[in-house]
């Protein structure tokens, strides 16, 4: 069983090892690509973090400038300081740098703020909007001074809850704090963006009283794009939330589309600390992403493994076929030698039988012949009958033969022209090719034994032959053929022993033709005066395709 399954086992084992190797290669490449992409994700977050850190440094620089002067500088001095900062890359993404006064709500404070706006920018504007809060933080300086920033001057950031929360946190903790997402006052309707602000408090040097807040407004989209659009470009899709990821907290999403590749690395979630707030950033591969190492070699390795498995299985099968062909040739050679030996034995047996039959027929004919002419005619007739029987047995191409005709042709060698065929009792049975040859050999062997040892040695011997078709114990139709020889006097001891001998070649030949070829049985019962032979075979095994109706002649 294992021998026949060997090619299948070879294919399964080699394919399994090859696929495991391909899987290991795929995993290694996938992990390498994943680590490379994680490096890209860290780089992107680092860029955003660096940009935010730089902006925080800008605010701290303004704070240091304020502390160096010991007071809120004039707008001209502030403008010069901011102009120097604008020349650096750190300013990209910042809408501006400004200062908002921290005052109690009231008419006097409003008048003071209006006067400061008039003095700084020549802008006749009161703090806005109206508020019910106890304090105000109106913007009194914001540089660079452009149309968008001038729009924000005088705006009371304390009046808006999100800004107020950040202002109070900065004031309480006395450090830089960022606000949540807001709509900047500078925004117009053409390109609206979400924004946020950073605040740090500025206190009077002597009294420690809060004078106001140094702050910077940011447009979030500009902040991220200024950070990410640096060389080299990163093939990523970035999504950011202010806090935990949700639709309400979404603050930025890249314009690039997500990668649809099967080997795209998984998303990476990273947190960024922004002046007291936590932003969550998700990094995914974009449509322009290409893995540093593709999986082509993994696919090729898997294909090569399957091809190798198939080739080895085919080679194993071819080797098996060679062994099987060699074994078949050996068995065929052994069978040929065995058949040759059997044919030689049969030929020797037939030649000895033929010589014995000729001698027996000559003696039998001589006893009954009146003169030489009579002997010659009778002996010649019997030889012709024997020749016809031999010719019948040699015609292996016969499709069928009548049992009675086959038997009568063989018995003419015993009785010559005087044979009475009416003593052959049985129904008409048309034998098929295999049965014709088997029964022809059986009749030939029985007739030869009768001539050599049995009743045909004397004129007084009797031969009774009959056959019938009847069901056996299993109700299957069987052909039963009976051959009975009897002499008037007992047979001599030598002939009786020859008839009873079961180990001779003739007996083996009878047994082989009836039992092996036709699946039947043969029973030989010797007697002091002769022998009884009974042959039983299945009728279906011996009848021809077109069988005449069976009717008894007994």
Write the layout of secondary structure elements.
Elements: H1 2-69, H2 75-86, E1 97-101, E2 103-104, H3 107-121, E3 135-136, E4 139-143, H4 147-152, H5 161-173, E5 177-178, E6 182-183, E7 194-203, E8 210-219, H6 220-228, E9 236-242, E10 250-253, E11 268-274, E12 277-285, H7 296-368, H8 372-394, E13 400-402, H9 403-415, E14 424-425, E15 430-432, H10 433-452, E16 462-471, E17 477-486, H11 493-500, H12 505-517, E18 521-527, E19 530-538, H13 539-542
Parallel strand pairs: 14-16
Antiparallel strand pairs: 1-4, 1-8, 2-3, 5-7, 6-7, 7-8, 9-10, 9-12, 11-12, 13-15, 16-17, 17-19, 18-19
Helix pairs in contact: 1-6, 1-7, 7-8, 7-10, 8-9, 9-10, 10-12
Describe this structure as you would to a colleague:
This protein is an alpha+beta fold. The protein is 50% helix and 20% strand. The chain contains 13 helices and 19 strands. It has helices at residues 2-69, 75-86, 107-121, 147-152, 161-173, 220-228, 296-368, 372-394, 403-415, 433-452, 493-500, 505-517, 539-542, and strands at 97-101, 103-104, 135-136, 139-143, 177-178, 182-183, 194-203, 210-219, 236-242, 250-253, 268-274, 277-285, 400-402, 424-425, 430-432, 462-471, 477-486, 521-527, 530-538. The strands form five sheets. Strands 1, 4, 5, 6, 7 and 8 form a six-stranded antiparallel β-sheet that branches. A hairpin with a 2-residue loop joins strand 18 and strand 19. The two termini are 57 Å apart. The mean pLDDT is 85.
């Amino acid at each position: 069983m294992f021998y026949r399954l060997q090619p299948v086992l070879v294919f399964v084992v080699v394919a399994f090892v090859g696929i495991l190797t391909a899987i290991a290669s795929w995993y290694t490449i996938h992990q390498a690509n994943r680590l490379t992409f994680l490096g890209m994700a860290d780089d992107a977050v680092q860029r955003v973090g660096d940009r935010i850190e730089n902006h925080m440094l800008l605010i701290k620089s303004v704070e240091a400038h304020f502390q160096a002067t010991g007071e809120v500088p004039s707008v001209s001095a502030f403008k010069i300081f901011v102009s120097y900062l604008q020349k650096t890359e750190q300013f990209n993404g910042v809408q501006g740098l400004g200062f908002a006064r921290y005052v109690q709500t009231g008419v006097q404070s409003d008048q003071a703020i209006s006067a400061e706006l008039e003095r700084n920018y020549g802008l006749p504007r009161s703090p806005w909007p109206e508020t019910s809060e106890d304090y105000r933080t109106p913007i009194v300086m914001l540089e660079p001074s452009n149309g968008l920033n001038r729009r924000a001057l005088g705006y009371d950031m304390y009046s808006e809850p999100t800004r107020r929360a950040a202002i109070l946190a900065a004031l309480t903790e006395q450090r830089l704090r960022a606000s949540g997402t807001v709509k900047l006052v500078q925004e117009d309707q053409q390109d609206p963006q979400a924004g946020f602000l950073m605040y740090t408090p500025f206190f009077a040097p002597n009294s420690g009283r809060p004078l106001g807040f140094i702050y910077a407004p940011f447009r979030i989209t500009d902040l991220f794009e200024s950070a990410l659009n640096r060389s080299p470009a990163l093939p990523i899709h970035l999504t950011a939330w202010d806090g935990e990821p949700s639709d309400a907290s979404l603050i930025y999403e890249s314009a690039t589309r997500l990668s649809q590749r099967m080997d795209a690395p998984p998303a990476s979630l990273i947190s960024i600390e922004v002046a007291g707030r936590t932003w969550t950033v998700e990094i995914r591969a974009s449509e322009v992403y290409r893995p540093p190492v593709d999986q082509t070699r993994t696919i090729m390795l898997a294909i090569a493994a399957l091809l190798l498995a198939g080739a080895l299985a085919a080679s194993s099968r071819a080797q098996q076929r060679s062994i099987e062909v060699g074994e078949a040739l050996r068995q065929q050679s052994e069978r040929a030698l065995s058949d040759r030996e059997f044919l030689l034995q049969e030929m020797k047996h037939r030649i000895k039988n033929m010589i014995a039959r000729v001698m027996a027929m000559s003696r039998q004919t001589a006893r009954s012949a009146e003169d030489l002419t009579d002997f010659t005619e009778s002996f010649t007739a019997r030889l012709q009958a024997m020749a016809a029987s031999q010719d019948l047995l040699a015609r292996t191409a016969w499709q069928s033969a009548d049992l009675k005709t086959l038997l009568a042709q063989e018995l003419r060698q015993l009785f010559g022209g005087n044979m009475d065929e009416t003593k052959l009792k049985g129904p008409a049975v048309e034998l098929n090719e295999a049965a014709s040859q088997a029964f022809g050999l059986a009749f030939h062997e029985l007739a030869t034994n009768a001539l050599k040892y049995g009743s045909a040695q004397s004129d007084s011997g009797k031969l009774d032959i009959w056959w019938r078709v009847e069901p056996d114990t299993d109700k299957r139709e069987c052909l039963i053929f009976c051959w009975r020889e009897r002499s008037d006097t007992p047979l001599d001891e030598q002939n009786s022993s020859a008839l009873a001998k079961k180990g001779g070649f003739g007996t083996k030949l009878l047994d082989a033709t009836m039992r092996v070829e036709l699946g039947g049985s043969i029973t030989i019962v010797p007697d002091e005066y002769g022998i009884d032979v009974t042959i039983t075979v299945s009728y279906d095994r011996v009848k021809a395709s077109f069988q005449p109706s069976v009717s008894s002649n007994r």
